[in-house]
Design a protein that fits this description.
Elements (H helix, E strand, L loop, with lengths): L4 E16 L4 E17 L3 E5 L6 H9 L6 E6 L24 H10 E4 L13 H11 L5 H14 L16 H13 L5 E5 L7 H18 L2 E6 L2 H7 L2 E6 L2 E7 H6 L4 H8 L48 H15 L5 H7 L11 H11 L9 H15 L3 H11 L11 E3 L5 E3 L1 H16 L1
Parallel strand pairs: 3-7, 3-8, 5-6, 6-7
Antiparallel strand pairs: 1-2, 1-4, 8-9, 9-11, 10-11
Length: about 450
């Protein structure tokens, strides 16, 4: 790898407008990708990982410009024009987001994409050889025999036969189709391949074969890869570095082994805890994410992970067990969203012996049970606030309960956007916990 990145993504955004009414008036935007930045060097594989819906695939299609980005830069081969880092107007001459049709066509020679579902990637009426060769024809190679020779050679390189040129997509298995997709991506001899969940639709045994093939082809063709997946095991096997994405943002990035051995963001820790262990006797804490799953159309303030984070910070005047604090915020958020079904809780509550209806105390106790809260909080002030809120909730004063809980239980994580913390060696994460640790270290040093 060279010091000069092949691809530099800077503050990339992709927002989808939300419209309403006959006139399609825009009333908001779904922030699928909201300001991500990273580099990919020559010969490097960067893994982009996160749960479904976090914006990984949207980021990929925006980088390749299958979709038009809303904002940001995608600088490709930025080192090729020495002395011309920026145009007079401040734009970069190699910014893919500003390419015209001719420049974009040239870029597509150097950057190709492999999609998740190989079955939908091919025209069922065309032979697979014709589908692959079509790329060469579009880019000016008119010699039919030469096109066929190149494609046949590539088919053999990906583990198929040259005679497969004249067969149709339905004649191949899913793993074979993904090999064909790799051949098509390589036919123009690109520098970069964006692989969007290329093995997730395949059986585990076939996944291993395709991953090994990708590794071999990368070394043979000196490729750079942006490898997108939700499977941390796959990411560990194939990637040099990892970028962890949550709700449109990158929350942690670093070398693969560093991320796996020393995760610095609570979301990364949760992802790693979900990896199955091959030894059934081995024990590891499984981190369960509870709380409210936010929407990209209305992301939460501050750290976007705070609505689910098991390490969400308590205010200085509160002293609760961390798990209890998380559950208390879960209750607060559910009440604020008017998502606590009192009628259902009444049905679940024990019935009062006298009149056949549960008493208010029984209902309040049942609410605590529903949210796994203790009968009495260890912090007296917090317990008093919770008791008053539950009283209002049972009395059907939901707005009053929400106001009380929102006013009393506030986490610093929702009050400020976390900045990147550098952990050394290119390992960075965005979490307020690290900012507080750094402040404590600086304060301690100043006192000494």
């Amino acid at each position: 790898m060279t010091d000069e990145p092949l691809l530099s993504v800077r503050n990339l955004k992709k927002h989808y407008p939300i419209t309403k009414g006959l006139l399609s008036r825009q009333v908001g935007a779904a922030k699928a990708v909201d300001g991500i930045s990273f580099d990919i060097h020559r010969g490097e594989t960067l893994g982009l990982v996160g749960e479904s819906g976090c914006g990984k695939s949207t980021a990929a299609s925006s980088i390749i410009r299958l979709e038009e980005p809303t904002d940001g830069e995608v600088i490709f081969n930025g080192g090729d024009r020495a002395g011309r880092t920026r145009n007079p107007d401040g734009t970069h001459p190699n910014d893919v987001t500003r390419f015209d049709k001719k420049e974009l066509k040239a870029f597509r020679r150097d950057a190709q994409m492999v999609f998740q579902d190989p079955s939908s990637s091919f025209d069922p009426r065309m032979t697979i050889g014709s589908s692959i060769a079509e790329m060469l024809l579009v880019h000016g190679m008119t010699d039919r025999q030469r096109r066929r020779a190149i494609v046949e050679d590539l088919l053999e390189r990906v583990g198929l036969s040259a005679s497969d040129y004249d067969r149709y997509p339905h004649e191949f298995s899913g793993g074979q189709k993904q090999r064909i997709a790799l051949a098509r991506a390589l036919v123009l001899n690109p520098d970069l391949i964006v692989a969007d969940e290329p093995v997730s639709a395949l059986d585990v045994s076939i996944q291993a074969e395709i991953l090994s093939l990708i590794d071999e082809l990368q070394e043979e063709f000196d490729l750079s890869l942006l490898f997108i997946s939700h499977d941390m095991s796959v990411i560990r096997k194939i990637c040099d570095r990892v970028a962890v994405m949550y709700l449109g943002e990158i929350v942690e990035i670093g070398e693969t082994e560093e991320i796996f051995s020393n995760p610095q963001h609570p979301y990364t820790e949760a992802l790693l805890s979900s990896i199955p262990l091959p030894d059934p006797r081995a024990e590891r804490e499984q981190i369960e994410l509870t709380g409210t799953v936010p929407s990209p159309s209305n992301p939460p303030s501050g750290c976007r992970f705070h609505t689910r984070c098991p390490k969400v910070i308590q205010p200085d005047d509160l002293d609760l067990e961390q798990a209890t604090w998380r559950r208390l915020l879960n209750l607060r958020d559910r009440v604020a969203a008017d998502d606590v079904d009192i009628e259902q809780i009444q049905e679940n509550a024990l019935v009062d012996e006298d009149d056949g209806r549960p008493s208010n105390e029984v209902i309040k106790s049942q609410i605590r049970t529903e949210f796994d809260l203790p009968e009495t909080l260890s912090d007296p002030q917090a317990e008093e606030t919770l008791s008053q809120a539950l009283e209002k909730l049972v009395a059907d004063d939901r707005a009053g309960a929400a106001e009380l809980l929102n006013g009393a239980f506030v986490t610093p994580c929702e009050q400020s956007v976390p900045e990147d913390t550098d952990h050394g060696g290119g390992h960075r994460s965005a979490c307020i916990l690290h900012e507080r640790e750094q402040d404590s270290i600086e304060l301690s040093t100043a006192d000494d």
